C-alpha cells in the first residue's frame, strides 16, 4: 500500500470555509479518480496547541496505481489546492510505503 499524506493548515479567516470545501468538493473529486483506493480527511489532534491542522490521506492499493496517479493526475490535484487557497494555507506532503 502507498499513502500520500497532505498536512494542511489554513488562515484563520478561511478555515471553516476551507473545511467545508474539502469535504464537499475536493474529497469527492479525489475519490472519483480510478487509481485511488481511499481518501480520508481528518483533523490533527496529537497536540492541544495544534487546532487548525488537517490531514488528507490518499491511499493506493499498490505501487502501479500510485505511479499512474502520480504520472497522470497528481500535479493537477495539487494545482486545484493552490488555485483555491493561494497564499492562505500551508501544506506539507509526504509519501509512505507499507513494508
Please identify the structural class as seen in this structure.
alpha+beta
Shape: globular
Amino-to-carboxy terminus distance: 8 Å
What's the total number of strands? 4
| Tally of separate helices | 3
Rounded to the nearest angstrom, the radius of gyration is 14 Å
Poorly predicted runs: none
What is the helix/strand order? EHEEHHE
Strand content: 25-35%
Characterize the biggest β-sheet: 4 strands, antiparallel
Mean pLDDT over the full residue set: 92
Please list the strands of the largest sheet in the order they lie side by side.
2-3-1-4
Which percent bin holds the helix content? 25-40%
Structure report:
- With 99 residues, the protein is an alpha+beta fold.
- It is built from 3 helices and 4 strands, in the order E-H-E-E-H-H-E.
- The protein has helices at 15-31, 63-72, 74-85; strands at 2-10, 38-43, 53-60, 89-97.
- A 4-stranded antiparallel beta sheet has the order 2-3-1-4.
- The longest helix has 17 residues, at 15-31.
- 12% of the residues are buried.
In short:
With 99 residues, the chain is α+β, with helices and mostly antiparallel strands. It is 39% helix and 32% strand. The protein contains three helices and four strands, in the order βαββααβ.
Tags for this entry?
single chain; 99 residues; alpha+beta; 4-stranded antiparallel beta sheet
Helices and strands in order, then pairings?
Blueprint: E1 2-10, H1 15-31, E2 38-43, E3 53-60, H2 63-72, H3 74-85, E4 89-97
Antiparallel strand pairs: 1-3, 1-4, 2-3
